[in-house]
Amino acid sequence: MIKQNCLFCNVANGNMASSTIFENSEFRVVLDPFPASKGHTLIIPKEHIENIYELDTESASRLFALATHIAKVLKNIYQCDGLNIIQNNGEAAGQTVFHFHLHLVPRYKDDHVTIKWDTLKMDKTELDEMASQISINL
């Protein structure tokens, strides 16, 4: 399904201009017009999928295979020192466009890109309880 008023539905389906680097029947891969670094790339499904909770495992598998290939190409071309894969789900997580998309952000020494958080202090008992709860729900 495509939502007419969705920015990324329009980009992914060629209804808006983009710097496209790859396209198939399922995804469009574009350079981010507001990049964090040189080569910052977005992988956008053509179907409207709001977030990871709506993404089926088969599509996720194909998406990550594509992301792996593109990451290697970016590394080869730009000789980046690292790469972040970023995907936000929900407003609390920083999602601003509510159409699933995956960021590939090449990283360079001293590039001034920041991805940082304060860590929580948890003891082994708390971690084991959480691990158990998650595990029994898989």
From TrEMBL:
Active site: 101 (tele-amp-histidine intermediate)
One GO BP: nucleotide metabolic process
GO MF: catalytic activity
Pfam annotation, one family: HIT
InterPro entries xrefs: Histidine_triad_CS, Histidine_triad_HIT, HIT-like, HIT-like_sf
Gene3D superfamilies linked to this entry: HIT-like
Alphabetical list of SUPFAM superfamilies matching this protein: HIT-like
Identification of the protein by name: HIT family protein
The species this protein was found in: Vallitalea pronyensis
